[in-house]
Amino acid sequence: MKKLGLTLGKFAPLHKGHQFMFETALREVDELIVVIYETTVSPIPLHVRANWIRRLYPTVRVIEAWDGPDGYSDDREHEIREEQYILGLLQGEQVTHFYSSEFYGKHMSIALGAVDRRVDEARQQVPISATMVRSDPHKYRDYVSDLVYRDLITKVVFVGAMSTGKSTITEALAQRYRTTFASEYGRDYWTEHQVDRRIGLEAFDEIAVGHIEREERALLEADRYLFVDTNAITTYMYALDYHGRAPELLTRLALENAQRYDLFFLCEDDIPYDDTWDRSGDQKRQVFHKQIIADLKARRIPYITLRGSLEERMNKVDKVLATFKPYSNYFGELCK
């Protein structure tokens, strides 16, 4: 007889305790089904949470329960609703083992006619809960996989022309919020590889990939926020400026960048121009700034403008972050 395992939960977020249960089940049964519920305890959408499981455990059958019973309780009325819902999802499939680390393992296994398989119910093997992770993801970083942790961080990018204060505010905010930042990889690359202040077209792909790798390293160490100095879209604009076109990989990465960040801040060109040897003058800054704004609009990317002194700019970012909720329609909320 085929051994079919089942477990359920919100996985908001998925943590190493859940993973220990999955891995235990996968050693014991022929197939594992994970039912994942919609919930209001976390802003992370159901399909994002479901895809964590799919990517980490490709052999697991994940069922997204968009209309499942909300919450959990030992109230018998709630138990019956959940039992009926799960039996309806299974459509007659016979589950042989029900996996959990909670009290509901008893009533669900009885309803399913399955073995009540409790895994680390006392949380001795993996002393963690989703509530603990939600309260302070950085504190419990070791109990969350890299794949999940990156989705718990709010990614904030600063764009604008040269000498508009992007690097300064990125570093200053990281210090204020005691978190990490990703500096502009392209500037470091250009300084090292430029010949007569020029670099080849293919170099722009290297810059885009190098910058994303730098972001990813910083992201996995971040605490609540990651502040980023420029992105692949800016690199794309520089490629057009240098060569009149952009390479294929960079073009694709620039398109994907529209969804990579939670917030875009545009640093205005209202501060004095810092005329260093590697820059092309204030007139060039003004033109390039207009081009960046036009590109953001063409890509339909909402952005927030920063003007004034560093402290004025930082104060505006503070106000935005104080009201921003991940995965929310932030700009829609502002219009209410």
Primary descriptors:
46% helix; 5-stranded parallel β-sheet; alpha/beta; 336 residues
Summarize, please.
With 336 residues, the protein is an alpha/beta fold. The chain has 14 helices and ten strands.
The 3D shape can be described as: elongated
- Structural classification: alpha/beta
Q: Helix and strand succession?
A: EHEHEHEHEHHEHEHHEHHEHEHH
Beta-strand segment tally = 10
Give the termini separation: 58 Å
With helices defined by DSSP (H or I, 4 residues minimum), what is the helix count? 14
On the 0-100 scale, what is the average pLDDT? 91
Helical coverage, percent range? 40-55%
- What does the largest sheet look like? 5 strands, parallel
Oligomeric state of shown chains: single chain
Which stretches of 5+ consecutive residues score pLDDT under 50? none
Into which percentage range does the β-strand content fall?
5-15%
Radius of gyration: 25 Å
> How are the strands ordered across the major sheet?
3-2-1-4-5
